[in-house]
Amino acid sequence: MELKQAIESRRSIRAYKDQPVPLEDLKELVRMASLAPSVANFQPWKFVIITNKELLNDMARKVALHLEAIPPNESRAAQNIKSQVEWFATFFQDAPALIAVAMESYESVLEKGVEMSHDEINRKRNFPDIQSAGACIQNILLSAVDMNYGACWLSAPMIAKDALEKMMGLDEKFNLIAFVAVGVPGSIPATKPARDLEEILKIID
Ligand SMILES: Cc1cc2nc3c(=O)[nH]c(=O)nc-3n(C[C@H](O)[C@H](O)[C@H](O)COP(=O)(O)O)c2cc1C
Q1: Predicted TM-score (pTM) of this structure
Q2: Which pLDDT band holds residue 203 (cuts at 50, 70, 90)?
Q3: Nearest protein CA to atom 31 of ligand 1, as residue
Q4: Which CATH number is 19's domain given?
Q5: How many domains does the chain have?
């Protein structure tokens, strides 16, 4: 498939056929992710592939509990909003596979030579660790299209990040960033129009 076609046809897929994704294919998605650019070529990522149903259910339950614990505000829509978000944060339990993307703290070249902490440099550079995660996640999404799978990027479950890291047995030096749910698409949503170029683009000649 042409890259352009993959970019144009990619959608967030949240409903999947009851069909497992072979481990070889999931490993190929992770291999493609690992080819993304990263800050100082540190390749700070770690991936966890989860296909264990029981663990996926337990993780989704944990996310739901964390959401329930947040007090709703006074608005009349509050309850609806919470249940809608709960679905967006927990539908991964019905995905054939979930890829967790975690990042290790990188050491920037600058911090070796200046009196500034890693955290401050990271903040001033607009979180290049998270930016690196974004690049590798997009590689997964586009490769999934190329391999006839559907995928969805999830950050909502991160509300239960600490608990999820423990449930996955993630080494403490890694920080869980996001999930990508993967499966054979059950349904593909209609294309959403992108905003006009005139609206989003400024050219300085
Ligand atoms: C950083 C990020 C976080 C996202 N988190 C979630 C999420 O937690 N749950 C979900 O269902 N979709 C999530 N999405 C998917 C977006 O909702 C989706 O990309 C957007 O609605 C546009 O639709 P499209 O991907 O089909 O073009 C996330 C996307 C991004 C880029």
Answers
A1: 0.96
A2: very high
A3: 153
A4: 3.40.109.10
A5: 1
